[in-house]
Design brief:
The chain has helices at 2-45, 67-88, 92-106; strands at residues 49-51, 57-59, 112-114, 120-122. With 123 residues, it is an alpha+beta fold. Strands 2-1-3-4 form a 4-stranded mixed sheet. Helices cover 66% and strands 10% of the residues. The N and C termini lie far apart (63 Å). The longest helix is centred in the N-terminal third of the chain and has 44 residues, at 2-45. Helix 1 (2-45) runs antiparallel to helix 2. The chain has one domain (2-122).
Length: 123
């Protein structure tokens, strides 16, 4: 009977361990993203970067100021989207597309956004 009980508890234990590790990773991601946010907003205000239709920040012109910052932001977004996709049983691409729509809804006037066909426009 103990073996059966342990076998039933194993998936629960694995799920809790996975959730805990994702929570720990998410905390670091949240902190990094929050620390970058003022610079990300400044780059958006300057028209250097915009939000693409896949949920990532991209350069909209020839100026590629702070490329490392943009790469770090997108890398963290990938991790967040992967965790959400796994939790919801969907794809990373779909999570990113949904997030892109949310971002469009709350974007500031004058910020660059990418439409569904890949064209850039100012909100």
């Amino acid at each position: 009977m103990k073996k059966q009980h342990l076998l039933l508890m194993l998936p629960v234990a694995i799920s809790l361990l996975l959730w805990f590790s994702l929570s720990m990773a998410a905390d670091g991601i949240k902190e990094r993203m929050a620390a970058r946010l003022p610079e990300i907003v400044t780059l958006k205000d300057q028209g250097v970067i915009g939000e693409d239709n896949k949920g990532y920040v991209q350069f909209v012109g020839a100026v590629q100021e702070k490329a490392g910052l943009v790469q770090a932001e997108n890398a963290d977004r990938v991790q967040v989207y992967q965790a959400i996709a796994q939790q919801q049983g969907t794809t990373v691409d779909l999570v990113g597309q949904r997030r892109a729509q949310q971002i469009k809804d709350i974007a500031q006037p004058g910020h660059w956004l990418q439409d569904d066909k890949g064209g850039w426009y100012k909100k």
